[in-house]
Structure formats: C-alpha cells, structure tokens
Amino acid sequence: MRVLITGAAGFLGSHLSDRFLAEGHEVVGMDNLITGSPDNFAHLIGNPGFQFIRHDVSNFIYVAGQVDGVLHFASPASPVDYLELPIQTLKVGSLGTHNALGLAKAKGARFFLASTSEVYGDPQVHPQPESYWGHVNPVGPRGVYDEAKRFAEAITMACHRYHGVDTRIVRIFNTYGPRMRPGDGRVVSNFIVQALRHEPLTVYGDGSQTRSFCYVSDLVDGIYRLFLSDRTEPTNVGNPNEFTVQQLAEAVIRLTGSRSRIERHPLPTDDPRVRKPDITVARSVLGWEPAVQLEAGLQRTIEYFRRLVS
Ligand code: NAD
Ligand code: UDP
C-alpha cells in the first residue's frame, strides 16, 4: 500500500509513519511544520519508501500517483498550541479534513481520521463509551479544537454515507512518549522537562482532575488495527488506567529522582474534570488492549527527554 499521512512531522504522525514503513508500505508524509519538526522524521530521509511534502492541508491537496490510504493526523493537538492557533486549528479540522476526504475519494483510498476524546468535552458519563454524545462548550477557548474535531467526524460520516468513501475514525485519548515537543505544554512533557530541570512542577487546579495516559506504541498498534479493520463507526483507543494529575506529578518526581516540588496554578477554562476511555469495542472488534503501563511508559519517555534536556 501507498499511504498519505498528514501531520507526519508531529508526535503521532511520525510514529505512524515508522509503523507503516515497518509493515512494508510506502509513506508520503505531509506537514506544514506549524507544531511539528523535521527532526521527527530525519531518520527516514533516504528511506526509499518515504517521501515528504511540505504543505498546508487546509489548502487543496495534490499527491501524484496511486494512494491507497489517507490518514489525516494534521492538527495542533496540545491545548497550549490550539489556544495560540485557534483559526488554523478550526481550518485544519474543517477545510483540511474536507481536502483529505476529497483526495481519498478521488484516489479510491481508505480515509482514516484522527479524532479525539475531546469530542466528549467535560464528560457527564464516566468512563466514556463511543455512544456518548459529549458535553462541549462550543464558544469556550477549547471549542476551536473540540468543535473542529466534531465537524471532522460529521463530514467523514457524511462522505462515507453520501459518497461511499471507505472511512475510519479513531478517538484518541491522552497519548505520550518520545518525540513530544518539550515545550508543547501537555502535562506529561511539561512535568518531565520540569522535573529533569529540578524546576517546580506546574499542577493546574488542585490536581484532582483525572486523565488516562496511553503509551505511543500501544496507540499506534490500535490505530494500525483499526485502519485494517472494517469498522466505520468512531472507536476509542486509549489506556483505561486513570490517574489524577497530582498522582502523575508525584510519579514523575519519583521516577526522575528530581528535587522539584509541586506548585499550584489556576485551572484553565473548561478543563475536563475526568477522562477515561471505555475500550470494550477496541477489545472485542480489534482484539486490542494496551500493553505498556504508566511507569514503564514514563521511564522510556524520561530517557528520551534526558537526551534533549541535558
Ligand atoms: P503534533 O502537534 O505533534 O502533530 C500535529 C502535526 O500536524 C504537526 O506536525 C503539525 O505541524 C501538523 N499540522 C498542523 N496543521 C497542519 C496543516 N494545516 N497542514 C499540514 N500539517 C499541519 O500533535 P500529535 O499529538 O501528534 O497529534 C496528531 C493528531 O492526533 C492530531 O490530529 C490530534 O488532534 C490527534 N490527537 C492526539 C492526541 C494525543 O494525545 N497526542 C489525543 C487526541 C487526538
Ligand atoms: N496540566 C497541569 N499542568 C501542566 C499541564 C497540564 O496540571 O503543566 C493539567 C491540565 O489542566 C489537564 C491535564 O493536566 O487537567 C491534562 O492536560 P493536557 O494539556 O496534557 O491535555 P488535555 O487532556 O487537557 O487535553
């Protein structure tokens, strides 16, 4: 297969490129580098199966030759990034998804959307099954990301139903690992970098809000299985082990052997109180479940950041 991966210079897109190449496929990576970096795919330069095109996918997408799959991962993903880039985030989720679907339709390719647990907003159902419609503030600061992804899901299902495009939708829950940008503002990268520098760990609010953290290799495996499956409805992929942000901070301090202390900061507007995937569908339909638990995943991620930070 020859697949287009948008967002290939990002954290997840680069790991996904590695996986498709390892499985013997060809990858065309596309990215405008707005939050990604060429460092993330530098190891693929010279690989005859890999090609990189610098392009903003909110504009018409042109790819010459056969394309069997279009995996749309381009979008700012960290709350800090999408609050700084609200219009670009709305555009890549709407126009970018429309363009990527158009390419898939023209090429007869399978389309795969990277959606998010943020479509559930600040959830009133816990844990979150795919059947839950969510609780999103459309006009709050996070609305630019949440509503762009909800629109992206809607247009993906419309193209599937109306044009017969072969589509898949994954709802990704908080994922971490090597190649996260040290300054991207997400909690795992922030805490590890702060701990390695012996600076205070910035816990927002009282730290009792929860997240369920998935290691990147597990996520990529779930995505690869979903891509090859015939399930067109949205599918949660994430690790259901739930932690408070305070517990995460304490684990990072312990695992890094840091002298850092914990410092309280204001909770961002509309920050979800809880988040945990119900992965019954992924377990039964994809035969998937996460294999790397938090401590092991954090250790691998800390090793990566040690090389960058020291
Ligand atoms: P990332 O910021 O590391 O990667 C996103 C990539 O998309 C970057 O390389 C960026 O330059 C590129 N990009 C953004 N807008 C673009 C545009 N208009 N044209 C071309 N390229 C563009 O983020 P990530 O964590 O790798 O997230 C990848 C995808 O997965 C996103 O769609 C995100 O919404 C989704 N997701 C990620 C998580 C997570 O925990 N990492 C959770 C839920 C959903
Ligand atoms: N958070 C925190 N300190 C930080 C960064 C984030 O306490 O330095 C909190 C944030 O308020 C949220 C959780 O950690 O409750 C996860 O934040 P992240 O930005 O990683 O992603 P989100 O799940 O909110 O999209």
- Beginning-to-end CA distance, first to last residue: 40 Å
Number of strands: 13
Bound small molecules, deduplicated: nicotinamide-adenine-dinucleotide, uridine-5'-diphosphate
Counting DSSP H or I runs of 4 or more residues, the number of helices is: 9
Q: Output mean pLDDT.
A: 97
Strand portion: 15-25%
Portion of residues within helices: 25-40%
Q: Structural class of the secondary elements?
A: alpha/beta
Unreliable spans are none
Sketch the topology as an H/E string, one letter per element.
EHEEEHHEHEEHEEEHEEHEHH
Described by the principal axes of the CA atoms, the overall outline is: globular
Radius of gyration, taken over Cα atoms and rounded to an integer in Å: 19 Å
Q: How does this structure look, described?
A:
- This protein is α/β, with parallel strands linked by helices.
- 38% of the residues lie in helices and 17% in strands.
- The protein contains 9 helices and 13 strands.
- It has helices at residues 11-22, 79-84, 86-107, 143-163, 187-196, 216-228, 245-256, 280-286, 294-309; strands at 2-6, 26-31, 50-54, 69-72, 110-116, 167-172, 175-176, 201-204, 210-212, 214-215, 235-237, 242-244, 262-265.
- The strands form 4 sheets. A 7-stranded parallel β-sheet has the order 3-2-1-4-5-6-11, sandwiched between helices. The chain has a two-stranded parallel sheet with strand order 7-10.
- Strand 5 (110-116), helix 4 (143-163) and strand 6 (167-172) form a beta-alpha-beta unit.
- Helix 5 (187-196) crosses helix 9.
- The protein is globular and about 55 Å long.
- The mean pLDDT is 97.
- It binds nicotinamide-adenine-dinucleotide and uridine-5'-diphosphate.
